[in-house]
Amino acid sequence: MDRTAAFESDVEHLENAAIRLAESEADGEPDPQLQSEFAAVLDHVLNAHAVDYESLTTHAEAVARIWRTRDHESTASKHVDTVHQAFMAEVCDDYDPVY
């Protein structure tokens, strides 16, 4: 698929929803509202773009895992950015990552 600003923005929204959900899980049970938000963003990305479900959910899980296991927020942010670029390069034919 071709990279579009809309697709990249939607992936970033999904990553942010995954991070917020991971943060809510730190206190025990995940926040039901954040679970619904994550599901809605995931559904939107899948319906709006020609991206594979498994690739997208694996990416979101990787982002959440990075956030759950972080030592420092800045390190985790950089790691998430690297994973974002790798995902975009994997699914978009014309994406040129800048690691």
Structural class call reads mainly alpha
User: What radius of gyration results from the CA coordinates?
Assistant: 13 Å
Largest sheet: none
Shape: flat
Number of strands: 0
Span of the ends, CA to CA: 21 Å
Percent of residues in beta strands: under 5%
Mean pLDDT: 95
Put simply, the count of helices is 4
Which residue ranges are poorly predicted, with pLDDT under 50 across at least 5 consecutive positions?
none
> Helical amount among residues, as a percent range?
over 70%
Order of helices and strands: HHHH
Structure report:
It is a single chain. The chain has 99 residues and is mostly helical. 74% of the residues lie in helices and 0% in strands. The chain contains four helices and no strands. It has helices at 5-25, 32-48, 53-68, 73-91. The protein is flat, with a radius of gyration of 13 Å.
List descriptors.
mainly alpha, about 100 residues, about 0% strand, about 75% helix, 4 helices, flat
Write the layout of secondary structure elements.
Layout: H1 5-25, H2 32-48, H3 53-68, H4 73-91
Helix pairs in contact: 1-2, 1-3, 3-4
Summarize the structure.
With 99 residues, the protein is mostly helical.
